[in-house]
Design a protein that fits this description.
Layout lengths: L4 H19 L5 H32 L6 H15 L5 H24 L7 H23 L14 E4 L8 E4 H23 L1 H11 L1 H6 L4 H27 L5 H5 L2 H8 L4 H30 L6 H16 L14
Antiparallel strand pairs: 1-2
Length: 333
């Protein structure tokens, strides 16, 4: 990774978070901070889903298109199990289910395709996506379900001494962002300091070299898929609590695709930073850029949040295809 990359990431975040409001005439600092915090909290949740993509791609080279379906499946499992047992027990059973699911996917689908073309692996995860969507509906049902985490959904007024009128912060979003940030920090410590985490990093760097020193690749891939399954469960529970558990939840998870493009497919750090940039950028664009576009071009307005992340990802693909924290590949002939 280039030593200047973190600086570039910070500059991009500042550009998105500061220049947009200034350019569009935002004058109330309290309102600006309120939008900024909302974007950061949404960005943490995007990062959580993007971690699943980054972990699997980094360890096995497989782009797991099924990550969104795993988020939905996990949320459905917890929501339906919580109807029959306490929520904490439903979450524990959900972790077991997602771990077993990860094992089955790796053992029955991906292991037979080792050393095949990347497109074959990608199509396999695409097939897993549709299977999980249909299987989840068969097992858990297709209605809209609720997950009650016991957190207040009422906005809380904070920082009244610093900003006139204070800042409204959604209590549930704030707690969810803290939980997601704690999980991200825990994963970072796991990869950095535990023997299994170091083995996973070795596998990610060079499969053949890791195997030559006795690291079992198949076991490592099962572990990383299981970790991605647990991450999907946490993301599914949080998003399910916010939006309700419904089949459009897997579409929300696809917002993580621009995140991994922006941060880099092989970087856990990139998934975190990319999620924050996307979260802040789309909120700022919707609130501050939207009215300017409506006024300038006589548009109907709205919807910027739906496409802003993908346009930003497209720009990065044109300028820096490997993302902010991705490794640049150079083929020498």
């Amino acid at each position: 990774m280039n030593k200047n990359t973190p600086f570039i990431a910070v500059c991009v975040a500042l550009l998105v978070g500061l220049v947009l409001p200034l350019a569009t005439g935002a004058s109330a600092p309290g309102f600006y901070v309120e939008v900024l915090l909302g974007g950061l909290m949404a960005g943490v949740l995007y990062s959580l889903v993007a971690l699943g993509f980054a972990l699997i791609f980094k360890a096995s080279g497989v782009f797991n298109f099924a990550q969104g379906a795993m988020v939905l499946f996990a949320a459905l499992a917890v929501a339906r199990l919580a109807e029959r047992m306490p929520l904490w027990a439903a979450i524990l059973v959900g972790i077991v289910i997602m771990t077993l699911l990860a094992w089955f996917i790796e053992r029955l689908v991906l292991r037979p395709l080792v050393n095949q073309d990347p497109i074959a692996l990608f199509m396999a995860t695409l097939g897993v996506t549709f299977f999980l969507d249909g299987f989840g509906q068969t097992v858990w049902g297709s209605d809209i379900y609720k997950i009650e985490l016991g957190m207040t959904k009422e906005p809380v007024l904070v920082l009244q001494n610093l900003f006139q009128g204070g800042i409204l912060v959604n209590g549930e979003d704030f707690v969810a962002a803290i939980v997601a940030a704690a999980l991200v920090g825990g994963l970072a410590l796991f990869f950095q300091y535990t023997p299994t985490g170091r083995a996973l990093r070795a596998v990610a760097d060079d499969h053949q070299a890791a195997q030559s020193i006795g690291i079992p690749l198949n076991r490592m891939w099962v572990i990383v898929w299981a970790v991605a399954g647990v991450v999907a469960l946490v993301a599914g529970v949080i998003w399910g609590s916010k939006l309700g558990v419904q089949f459009s939840l897997s579409q929300v998870a696809l917002k993580a695709l621009p995140v991994v493009i922006l941060g880099g497919f092989t970087s856990v750090t990139g998934a975190i930073v990319g999620g924050l940039i996307i979260g802040v950028g789309e909120k700022m664009a919707e609130v501050f850029l939207g009215p300017v576009l409506v006024k300038a071009f006589d548009l109907a307005g709205g919807g910027i949040e739906n496409w802003f992340a993908y346009v930003l990802a497209l720009v990065f693909l044109l300028v820096r295809p490997q993302g902010l924290f991705g490794e640049k590949h150079i083929d020498r002939v």
